Amino acid sequence: MSEQLTVTLQEFRERIKQIKGYEEAIALLHWDMRTGAPRKGIASRSEAVGMLSAEAFKLSTSERMGELLEKLEGPASSGELSRIDQKLVEETRKEYDRNQKIPPAMYQEYVVLTSQAESYWEEAKDKGDYAGFEPYLDKIIDFNNRFIDLWGPKATRYDTLLDMYEPDMTTAELDRIFGGLRTKLVPLAAAIADSPHQPDRSFLGQTYSIEAQKQFSLFILQEMGYDFEAGRLDESVHPFATGLNPGDVRITTRYLEDDVTSALFGTIHEGGHALYEQNIMKELLYTTLCTGTSMGIHESQSRFWENVIGRSKPFWERYFADLQKHFPGQLDTDVDSFYRAINVVQPSLIRIEADELTYNLHIIIRYEIEKMIFNEGAKAADLPEIWNLKYKEYLGITPPNNKDGVLQDVHWSGGAFGYFPSYSLGNMYAAQFTNTLENEMPDLWDKVGKGDLLPVKAWLSDKIYKYGRLETPSEIVKRVTGKPLDPSYLVSYLETKYKEIYKL
Amino acid sequence: MSEQLTVTLQEFRERIKQIKGYEEAIALLHWDMRTGAPRKGIASRSEAVGMLSAEAFKLSTSERMGELLEKLEGPASSGELSRIDQKLVEETRKEYDRNQKIPPAMYQEYVVLTSQAESYWEEAKDKGDYAGFEPYLDKIIDFNNRFIDLWGPKATRYDTLLDMYEPDMTTAELDRIFGGLRTKLVPLAAAIADSPHQPDRSFLGQTYSIEAQKQFSLFILQEMGYDFEAGRLDESVHPFATGLNPGDVRITTRYLEDDVTSALFGTIHEGGHALYEQNIMKELLYTTLCTGTSMGIHESQSRFWENVIGRSKPFWERYFADLQKHFPGQLDTDVDSFYRAINVVQPSLIRIEADELTYNLHIIIRYEIEKMIFNEGAKAADLPEIWNLKYKEYLGITPPNNKDGVLQDVHWSGGAFGYFPSYSLGNMYAAQFTNTLENEMPDLWDKVGKGDLLPVKAWLSDKIYKYGRLETPSEIVKRVTGKPLDPSYLVSYLETKYKEIYKL
């Protein structure tokens, strides 16, 4: 490498490191606002977040960054750069072209708005007061529409937003995939509803110590290989995981006294996200590649751990006795009944508590509403009604209030339109990865049945986690499973699982 | 105001707001590192802190800032600007002239170093392992020596550092003040030691529930008027208060099972700092004047609340019954005995647990050591021995280990050389303010005896807190008490108090 190229690369890497530094600070400020920052400091904190975001944004779109990219793109394409640097140049170029179209002041205003809106959403959700949140939501929608105009609409306006979370995903493709899913899952759900073998859940209707729930959540995280020297578990209204750097990946959960499994599966879910971020290779430290490659792949990991592992029979053959010990006299049943009880398929109101099958209907509802907002001009004021009608149509139930309806998710308050499909994509990726894992680790379920989860974590680290954003979602799926994304793995996984449980 | 001046002022204020935004983010990152950030993320977090500090530093020394200051200094001195803007221009100029002498890369390196060193200090203190901390301390001393060279030594090299925490304070002045204090306090301490009326502390030697200590600490903070919607109480190895903005002023404390008053007085102390920061006038928001004016005035508030109020008899006449209720059967004595027990004068090892009288000797020791480091070239390796010799000389006791000796304080790990004298200055300011408060509020002690503390907070807010950095320490002391700083108030306060307790 020429001396000049070395110097250019060094300057480029310094700038990337600085952007990453801003991202780490912003992530901590967000974590803090959601885990206990005092109410009266929010306005000032939001201004600080806005300022830091604007600075990172300016760096990523600066004239100098453009010059550096131009100097580095030749060497990158001729193979003179390392694989990491080459990818870094590509991704930074993509970001540069995208961000350059947004005026920095507009971006900063948007960040301050969404940062405040998240707190207002929390308040509105608490009180079930949609009207208090509506003006913020309208402003956020309006901003996103202006972003779409600046970036340029793709096949549809909503496609422009989708691409942010799952590169190159389109509404055409999602319509096809979700259509196919629906065709297979609706008859399966109907057969389940008609089955005479409905699991008994009545033994779960007790009051469970929050302290014991916390202890068991911590225990399971430890079993999964979550590194507590590189993370911590806190509480927040809406559970989340945030990777500040691989040495600091935090999880939050939410404990419910009347539900012994809600916080537990929430914790395992966020733990899956966290394992991904904790196990990214050291070589990516201080670069913008040091994070999960897409929301879909991220969700594949959270949902793999939550559902494929956490709701499997072998898992509970190992851990049910431990759970019983945490709640003496309160889980007086056998493993099989417990396993069936935590896998009940039943239409419900809250996405994050839905079963693995109907979960996808919750996602399809949000996907369709987001399409309506951006492709058909639906306004914030319209959403409660649309929401409730769709829940009636797809799940046969109507939310009794907005808290359990349109206000339940944090995503829109943060402007994350186009994110929701990632959850179902995650389910599909997870099923496909599981198929490969079962082939490559024939004693997988024996291991899980013995609580030997670390080899699973090691396999995923080796195949997926360590790469961070070094590969695209489709490259990862192709390399790991030998095939592109194929929804039939999810269908087949769900059919096998529920045919056994419901004796279909 | 001309349109041009308005535009210039607006740009200046925007830059100040940005610097303040960086300071808020950095303060949160520090708070987080000291209250529970995972160990493995520290390296990356320190890099982020270093980067943010460097950016704030660059802003404060930028060419553009220099131009803006030049444009604004004329209007400032001719009275065209508001009082706040005028002061902001003055203070920013001082910072600009000072910071411009330090190369930004050197400053960033220093910030990363001190940010890491604080964590290594915690570890070293835990293990009593001075050798593990020594190389960091040497590096920090070396940096400070280079700063002194760049800033230019004042009357002595150490004077240059002193000025940072207490503007215009000198070693000549401190030698005089501390000399005077010693002359008065040493005979008082001797008389106390010889008194036949030694308070009984034996009833305090029990094990006290940490949860109950926490509850009582929270209760007293509430009584003082600490606003929990604008703050929170956490735990850390070394208690501290940090004002992110007036709506978010956090306190930490440290609970000891075998000492019922350590965390309590620590909390009241930090609570005093917090009241200062919570009650700064809204007009100073988003400016660098929105903080305490000096460490000395800050300490006057923490030590006023901790000692003048918190260790007074009227305070315990009101609150002792409440304390007893928190520890049933564990405080079986009367108020007077308790009051005497918490005011025992006795040489001890740990500064933050020292009585009001010998506390000043702890400060004098640190002050003399810091003078030796910067004026006589003492090295980190020399400090444990110097420390122990001085404790023998001034307090008649020798630390059994470095944990209870030279490693006890966080300050040096953060590079805060020149800070310690502020504590004794704080005691002196506090005694002088108290004298005025007693004159202006003749029923002060009746109020305290009834737990009517909010008028005290209101008086302090009105006289001191609300001004933030709008006035200098000497301006405040002069305005509030009508006189410059006069150490005789402290001497007289201590003499009156201890003559009564020890029946001298």
TrEMBL record, chains A, B:
<keyword id="KW-0121">Carboxypeptidase</keyword>
<dbReference type="GO" id="GO:0008270">
    <property type="term" value="F:zinc ion binding"/>
</dbReference>
<keyword id="KW-0645">Protease</keyword>
<dbReference type="Pfam" id="PF02074">
    <property type="entry name" value="Peptidase_M32"/>
</dbReference>
<comment type="similarity">
    <text>Belongs to the peptidase M32 family.</text>
</comment>
<keyword id="KW-0378">Hydrolase</keyword>
<feature type="active site" description="Proton donor/acceptor">
    <location>
        <position position="270"/>
    </location>
</feature>
<feature type="binding site">
    <location>
        <position position="299"/>
    </location>
    <ligand>
        <name>Zn(2+)</name>
    </ligand>
</feature>
<feature type="binding site">
    <location>
        <position position="273"/>
    </location>
    <ligand>
        <name>Zn(2+)</name>
    </ligand>
</feature>
<comment type="function">
    <text>Broad specificity carboxypetidase that releases amino acids sequentially from the C-terminus, including neutral, aromatic, polar and basic residues.</text>
</comment>
<dbReference type="InterPro" id="IPR001333">
    <property type="entry name" value="Peptidase_M32_Taq"/>
</dbReference>
<dbReference type="GO" id="GO:0006508">
    <property type="term" value="P:proteolysis"/>
</dbReference>
<keyword id="KW-0479">Metal-binding</keyword>
<dbReference type="GO" id="GO:0004181">
    <property type="term" value="F:metallocarboxypeptidase activity"/>
</dbReference>
<keyword id="KW-0862">Zinc</keyword>
<keyword id="KW-0482">Metalloprotease</keyword>
<feature type="binding site">
    <location>
        <position position="269"/>
    </location>
    <ligand>
        <name>Zn(2+)</name>
    </ligand>
</feature>
<protein>
    <recommendedName>
        <fullName>Metal-dependent carboxypeptidase</fullName>
        <ecNumber>3.4.17.19</ecNumber>
    </recommendedName>
</protein>
